[in-house]
Write a structure and sequence with these properties.
Immunoglobulin-like; five-stranded antiparallel β-sheet; OxRdtase_Mopterin-bd_dom; 6% helix; mainly beta; 414 residues; five-stranded mixed β-sheet; 2 domains; globular; oxidoreductase; disordered N terminus; 6 helices; OxRdtase_Mopterin-bd_sf; heme binding; Sulfite Oxidase, Chain A, domain 2; metal-binding
């Protein structure tokens, strides 16, 4: 039976605070420490698990938008693995592609056109003649944590909490290896990638994104595997452009064309979407992005997550071990994670685990002694370039992009 959009949407929960999987998921890599016992935890939604879904995908994702599909991972599930199993991986599509609503390996022939000084069209199967390399990396939607901007003023788009992020292992061939025989045109400064699929708004052009060529040439992959398995259509297969350290929108799914150009594409998704103002806006201020007043959403800012305990949990007074993860864009190293329980008056440094790669997240932990009462924990990270998470993110913007502000977790201690 072919998959339909409704069947895919049924693979996601309408609301996501479930604490356990209904279907076992094989762990990939080291499992995270078992969360400590709490007096009370946020209750799962009362609705029953759906009976129809995508094989290999948990039904407990939080569904924000049916078309194009947008689902995020509850932190109660995300915290169970250092490397996020594909079954738990969030989904954020800008386009729809027939046959893509499946967690099975993408099937059928697929051609990829590459244009340097000269051009070539390859069957995806031809990529097998190049060495396979793998990169463990954070994959994060540019709108992740968008709902946090709403503390200042409402923002548009799916109201992502903190689960439109994952730590995964992409495998494929180095883009530089494939482009080397084609040559780089004189004056080329940008790599432009185009993906297949149909838009959900009338008269929109194909999905295209451009990124700085010099910054990504040595790290970009033509990815054909995810977590050691063939890349599914649901996550951009059979081939996806992967640029470690960049927000997910730049990791173009269902890749069909790559070109090396002097200027960025003038496509809608480069010039009208995924842009941030160059001048700070007041919360609620209207903004229409142009190439003169905004910048593209490219590299990720330093960011941390606290996922043990979770918002709303009730803890026993006394020593409490906090756990979470933090990451950077890979250009600079993660230097510290620190926690405040007094509104930022004082901060305590957490212990960081080692880095699997410059682009992967790093688990952290810290034991605090908490007295009884209502508490709010603040968490922030900093990198070797001197960047520290600000109180309110990259700056309020109407589309809610790139929130990396201090995380605030309210809980009760008895």
């Amino acid at each position: 039976m072919p998959w339909t959009l409704d069947m895919c949407a049924n693979a996601c929960r309408l609301s996501g605070s479930a604490a356990t999987l209904t279907t076992p998921v094989a762990p990939l890599g080291d499992a995270m420490p078992t969360p400590q016992e709490t007096l009370e935890a946020p209750a799962p939604e009362a609705t029953a698990a759906p009976t129809t879904g995508i094989a290999g995908k948990t039904p407990w994702l939080t569904l924000h938008v049916r078309a194009p599909l947008q689902c995020e991972t509850p932190l109660s599930l995300l915290r169970q693995h250092r490397v996020t199993p594909t079954a738990l991986l969030y989904v954020r599509n800008n386009q729809d592609l027939a046959g893509s609503f499946s967690a099975a390996a993408a099937a059928g022939p697929w051609r990829l056109e590459l244009r340097g000084t000269r051009s070539v069209t390859l069957e995806v199967t031809e990529l097998k003649r190049y060495p396979l390399v793998e990169t463990e990396m954070v994959l994060q939607c540019a709108g992740n944590s968008r709902a946090q901007y709403g503390r200042a003023s409402p923002v548009s788009g799916a109201q992502w909490q903190d689960g439109a992020v994952a730590n995964v292992v992409f495998g494929g061939v180095r883009l530089a290896d494939v482009l080397s025989p084609l040559g780089i045109p004189k004056g080329a400064r940008y790599l432009t990638a185009r993906g297949a699929g149909e838009a959900h708004e009338p008269d929109l052009p194909p999905f295209e994104r451009s990124v700085p060529l010099a910054d990504v040439l040595d790290t970009a992959l033509l990815a054909t595997t995810l977590n050691g398995e063939p890349l599914s259509a649901l996550h951009g297969g059979p081939v996806r452009l992967v640029v470690p350290g960049y927000f997910g929108v730049n990791n173009v799914k269902w890749l069909t064309h790559i070109s090396l150009d002097a200027e960025t594409t003038d496509g809608f998704y480069q010039t009208a979407r995924y842009r941030l103002p160059l001048t700070p806006l007041a919360p609620g201020e209207a903004f229409e992005p142009t190439s003169e007043n905004s910048r593209p959403s490219w590299r990720m800012g330093v960011k941390s997550l606290l996922w043990e305990p979770l918002v709303g949990e009730t803890l026993r007074a006394g020593p409490v071990t906090l756990r979470g993860v933090a990451w950077t864009d890979g250009r600079s190293a993660l230097e510290f994670v620190e926690v405040s329980h007094d509104g930022g008056s004082s901060w305590q440094r957490a212990e960081l685990e080692g880095a699997a790669s410059p682009y992967a997240w790093r688990p952290w932990s810290l034991t605090l002694t908490l007295e009884a009462g209502e508490r709010e924990l603040w968490v922030r990270a900093g990198d070797s370039a001197g960047n520290v998470q600000p109180l309110e993110g990259a700056g309020w913007n109407p589309a809610g992009y790139e929130f990396n502000g201090v995380q605030r977790v309210r809980l009760s201690v008895r």
